[in-house]
UniProtKB/TrEMBL annotation:
GO biological process, one term: DNA transposition
Protein name: Transposase IS1
Similarity comment: family membership: Belongs to the transposase 27 family.
InterPro entries in UniProt: Transposase_27 (IPR005063), Transposase_27_IS1 (IPR051354)
Biological role stated in the UniProt entry: Absolutely required for transposition of IS1.
Organism from which the protein derives: Entotheonella factor
Domain of life, per lineage: Bacteria
Keywords noted in UniProt: DNA recombination, Plasmid, Transposition
GO molecular function, one term: transposase activity
Amino acid sequence: MNHALLRVLKPEQVEVEICRADEFDQRRGLSSELDEMWSFVRRKTNPRWLWHAINHHSGQVVAYVFGRRKDEVFLKLKALLEPFGITRYYTDGWGAYERHLDPEQHRVGKDQTQKIESKHITLRTQIKRLVRRTICFSKTEQMHDIVIGLFINRYEFGRLL
């Protein structure tokens, strides 16, 4: 290894700004990762999608909705997000995002959606009816939404209902 190519930063060369996440979001604007996660009710030909948004910095779920993979379902999620004043959205580029988010606020790419993809793994591990190959499944959309919604409310929001 050629040590002449190594560079060492000195503390005076590094600028660090320490602040709480909520202060950071207030100054810079809240940024959010959005994604949709597939599951099914009764049979795989009856898909049900969990659309959710998380805080890009903290990873906390901000809002979620259930439905098909259609624009009108995304618009319900978008309406839930409006009070947060989100200034930057990170997505995987699904068409609904392209059609309904301001291009100046929207960034497409898997490099900025790692936290929400990790959330999917956690959900699929904890809730067996979200596993793609399973004998555990919901028989009704209502029960599907209740089970997943209760899990999210309990473990993300700390609420029992």
